[in-house]
Amino acid sequence: MTPLRLAFAFLLPTMALCATPSRAQTQVQFILQTGSDDLRDDSIADYQVELDDGRIVNGYVYGRRPDRTTYTAPPLDLPTGLTRANIRFVRVMFSGGAPGPFPRPLDADKLWQGDQWEVRITAAAGVRPPGGGTTSFTDILADSGWFKFQHPGWWQSGPMAAQRLPASITGANRFVVTICTGDDDLRTDPRAQPNSEVEVFANLASGAVPLDTGRLVHRDFVSPGGDPPTRDSAWIGTFKSWGCAWASADAHGMIPRLTDISSFSVKMFPGRPVHGITSCAPFCGSDPFRGDDEWVINGFSIAVDPLGTWPGGSGSFHYIFSQLNIGQKRNKHSLTWVSDPWMH
User: Fold this and answer.
1) Selection from 6, 51, 58 nearest residue 318 by Cα
2) Is 215's pLDDT higher than 50?
3) Are the C-beta atoms of residues 211 and 250 closer than 8 Å to each other?
4) In the chain, at which end, N or C, are there fewer CB atoms within 10 A of the end residue's CB?
């Protein structure tokens, strides 16, 4: 597989951080031991450290990792001034070519090709001495034990620190939303009637606030990855099986404080008619109550984008909520998925 041209420098704001030689630098190292089922050339894994303020530092594993071999990934540098106490989660995502679960899904059409991977994941922290030198990774953060990725998904540690929302983002109303599908796609192609689309909501005590992705004003609901997007669309990426899609969303000032949010929800809505068709039946779009479309939501994450820089920007996102390995099916009998409560 040709290495993906990754810009973040989303997946998250992937942060390319340079150590300051005159100061101690906290680093995290991942050791990935492959068991009796290898990581193939057409798959990809990314390893991530989520900080207590929602920023994420991550790296990628490309190319085949043969059976019964050990890969020591390049260490990840935490931002200057942050320490092991600021690490909230460590995780690894296994996918079929498209990085995730966060923005800038270049080559997002490279879907899972049926690969499976048996792996043991160990993450450890250490401090590189001022002026450089060798880091001793003696602080074990997490050990997954042996397990097998049988399809795209995530392994994640338990929480190691409480979530900390910086004061600069508590009033933010702009977001980046990620949705990943499981083994049943969301039918989004207007040429397939009926088809479906989704809307995302933030649930407050006062009611559900729509997170506006511009679905009703863009020509397309979703388009393939690219920077900029290849078409006028609300979402970038794919809702095909085992795919991920990303969208910018705006609450338009309807959320006074982020901490007013108790959970999130995703709801199926009728899709759109075939482009250029203005008369109704049989090309007037989908009605999920009548249609036979159903899909599986497998991953959901949401980040605050206070500067409105996505797509195209990096480094300003703060991931506030994620729910992984969901595996829940939605259809005309159950249009809405509601997340677990957001504990903040």
Assistant:
1) 51
2) yes
3) yes
4) C
